[in-house]
Design a protein that fits this description.
The chain is of the alpha+beta class and 84 residues long. The protein has a single domain, classed as 3-Layer(aba) Sandwich (YefM-like fold). The chain is built from four helices and three strands.
Length: 84
């Protein structure tokens, strides 16, 4: 996953400037919060959260065969969370 540098904030920045960070999440859909330069959390805008939640609800209604088909068709990615 490639993440824009604009979508990354430090843990201390979110504590000190929550309103600004929340606005950034609203604009970008989500921001990634780093703690000690490591991924710690993600702050989603409500619109982005609702989009993901609808997808999760859809997946929960699928049977295991359907889920296996979807999973097998996903691109294989390495287990690295952020590419900085």
């Amino acid at each position: 996953m490639n993440v824009s540098i604009d979508a990354i904030v430090s843990n201390s920045d979110i504590i000190k400037n929550y309103k600004t960070c929340r606005g950034k999440a609203e604009k970008l859909g989500r921001i990634f919060i780093l703690k000690y330069n490591q991924p710690d959390a993600v702050l989603f805008s409500i619109k982005e959260y609702e989009r993901f939640y609808m997808f999760i609800e859809y997946l929960e209604k699928l049977n295991s065969n359907d889920i296996s088909k979807i999973y097998n068709n996903l691109p294989k990615i390495k287990a690295k969370l952020l590419t900085l």
